[in-house]
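Aim 2 progress update. The chain analyzed this quarter is reproduced below.
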Amino acid sequence: MFLPTKDGPFLTTTTSNLLKDRNRAFMKRTLFYIIGAMLLFSACSTQIDEDQRLTYVKPAAVGKNVLLVDFTGQRCINCPTASHEIEKIQEQYSADTVIAVGMHSGPLGFRGNAKTVGLSTTTGDNYYRQWNVEYQPQGVIDYLGKSDYTAWAGIIHEQLKQTAPLNIKIDAKTNGTSGSGSVSLEGLDGNIQGKLQLWIVEDSITALQMMPDGTTNRNYLHMHVFRTAVNGEAGEPVNVKEGETTTINFSTDFAAIWVPRHLWLIAFVYNESGVLQVKRAAFKAN
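Predicted structure tokens:
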């Protein structure tokens, strides 16, 4: 059957139905696109917490170094034997892994005079009293208590089995009369509250030393000799969070008798659990 249209031409009922079906399909597709766009916009606008968007990766563990404080003295006849023990331990593990400090102090320490170089210091004597040192040589490893030099190798072996909860990076520079730089503390395991201690030690000092056979060696080569505490005798408080880095700047004057190319900065963090990590770095010329 033919039906007249308003404009004149004729369409069959079949053609008219086809156009209606196409219009309905077009409207359905358009509605589908609109709904899809609305859902996409809604998803993009949803607030997601930071800890839900990112997967946390724990920092890699690092090996622990060991701090050995040797309470020694130039008038101590047994102290060269303890120094030789330190040499053997450092030959086994390296001087960067087992970091030694010769703390000249106590009744067998020597302050020096106009003719003879002395290596004892007021700060060293204060540490001597703080640790209630009973005899010399006697050592303190990782701030865990006193020990005889005959026990050092075994204690150090056990301490080196541990990992450190933080890493320490040192940037130390010198202009010849002073030193400055920074110490960066990177948290690796948990949040750490403690103190950062900065010491300066000097290698290769030729000075008097009483020897085990009772003689006096005026050309004895002293190593890792404590010179000063840069940031106070107890250090300064630090709070290091896991995954974050804390940086501390420092500066200090050098004594005229110190040789800059033989100086090291020692940095360690400690708390009631002992020394958590220790590093050393030579002062580099600016």
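The chain is about 25% helix and 40% strand. The longest strand covers residues 192-202. These observations will guide the mutagenesis experiments scheduled for the next reporting period.
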